[in-house]
Amino acid sequence: MNKLTCVESYIDQDQNHYGCFLIEPLEIGQGITLGNALRRTLLSDLSGFAITGVRVNNLKHEFAIIEGLREDILEVLLNLKELVFKGSFFFKETNSKGKLKGFLNVKGPIIVTAGMFRLPKGKIKIINPNQYICTIVDDSELYLEIDIENGKGYRLTEETKQKKVNEKFYPVKPSTLLIDAIFMPIKNVNYKIKLIHDTQGNIKESLHLEIVSNGSISPKRSLQEGLKILMNLFYPLFLDPDFLTASSQLAKNFYK
Length: 256
Hints:
Number of strands: 14
Radius of gyration: 24 Å
Shape: elongated
Helix content: 25-40%
Distance between the termini: 36 Å
């Protein structure tokens, strides 16, 4: 019987969550089949939250200058892309196509970090509140408003523009600066296959799976979700009534 075991788990200095899992024993050839399927599923099919739009002091474009701000707007946008969000399970299940807003309004001199954002309570939170955003060197005021969406994979600004054009409920404001959104919570997945011997001396395969997440989901939970996605993909095909009827008819004709 195949067993799934977590052999190592830790959080590194960048707050990335690492997990190493062992699946064995597998028949020869099954390791690469299972490893490749899990890797593709974990990297492309798990959903996450990311910033898709930013409004900064009602600026019209990202090349504008804010007095008293040490960084330019492009640097601020790059820092905002580093924010990691974790949504509540209830919100993710019922409002996967919705959009949340967060904002901060501060007066300098001050160092602005991610933890200063005000977000809807009980729906979403920031995993890395110490993430640096910018620095205000004088008594200027800074107003930042962000749009947070749930999705899979990544979305370029051009795709976001087209999406907003087709939306009736969430039109783009003229002052919104769109940014590329990276929704996927899994940063990296690697797998290795080793040959082992079972208790009877037969040659089997052992699959070592390494998962690195951004902290919004644990490697163990991500692996569970990946396995669930694959099960939901294959199981309905197995129970397809048309397929079962056709298979039964073929079997009858074969044994006539």
